[in-house]
User: Which sequence fits this backbone?
């Protein structure tokens, strides 16, 4: 089943926010293959983090990822207005299958 | 510039069939695995299926296994999703996405996405 993310988080410009992504030992906890995607309304998702904490080229270092046990986290520091979007985590779930989180709406106040 | 363009979506009755296409450009298509990911209206993302660069290896979510078939034509730089036995719960925007690896591996990710094509299944 889908990974569990908070429905919404918010923060003011310049602040930091953390989005959690909770799974099980069969997905998040069992592999270091968690990725994160940003999606603005009506747009295609954008690849932000892979292998728990690695950033693809072009992604600002304000975005960072981590994992502890069955929970992965995405932290966005120095919040900017353009960070307002939906964020989805994704984990390898074994047997060549992948599972996404339900998504978190980030509001920049 | 990597570009992925989906087509083939539309309105179909429950039990019907539809074939989606994903035309790729801007990269060596056969060197990358590809995937379909869908998003029901107002809902989150759901991985549907993946295919290796050669097309020899395919993988499916349990929710579509036996009903959907993924394929690709590396000469036409196009990936397909044949959807049979459609159900109301298959209603979603279907995105095609590129995987940086030529073979599907545990570390596979979705680094480029198309704009999606909407499939609506009426009951």
Assistant:
């Amino acid at each position: 089943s889908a990974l569990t993310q908070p429905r919404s988080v918010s923060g003011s410009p310049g602040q930091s926010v953390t989005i959690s992504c909770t799974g099980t030992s069969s997905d998040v906890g069992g592999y270091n293959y968690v990725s994160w995607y940003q999606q603005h309304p009506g747009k295609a998702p954008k690849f932000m983090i892979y292998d728990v904490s690695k950033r693809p080229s072009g992604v600002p270092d304000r975005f960072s990822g981590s994992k502890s046990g069955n929970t992965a986290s995405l932290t966005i520091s120095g919040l900017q207005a353009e960070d307002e979007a939906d964020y989805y985590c994704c984990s390898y779930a074994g047997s060549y299958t992948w599972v996404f989180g339900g998504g978190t709406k980030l509001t920049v106040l | 510039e990597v570009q992925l363009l989906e087509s083939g979506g539309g309105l179909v009755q429950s039990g019907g069939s539809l074939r989606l296409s994903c035309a790729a450009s801007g990269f060596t298509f056969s060197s990358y695995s590809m995937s379909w990911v869908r998003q029901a209206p107002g809902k989150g993302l759901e991985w549907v299926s993946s295919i290796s660069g050669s097309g020899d290896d395919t993988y499916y979510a349990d929710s579509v296994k036996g009903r959907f078939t993924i394929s690709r034509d590396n000469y036409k730089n196009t990936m397909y999703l044949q959807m049979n036995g459609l159900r109301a719960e298959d209603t979603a925007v279907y995105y095609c996405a590129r995987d940086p690896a030529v073979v599907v591996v545990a570390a596979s990710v979705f680094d480029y996405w198309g704009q999606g094509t909407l499939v609506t299944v009426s009951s």
User: Anything to note?
Assistant: The radius of gyration of chain A is 13 Å. Chain A has a mean pLDDT of 97. Strands of chain A lie at 8-11, 17-22, 34-39, 46-49, 63-68, 71-76, 85-92, 98-100, 104-108. Chain A touches chain B at residues 2, 31, 33, 35, 37, 43-47, 50-51, 56, 88, 90, 92, 96-103 (CB under 8 Å).
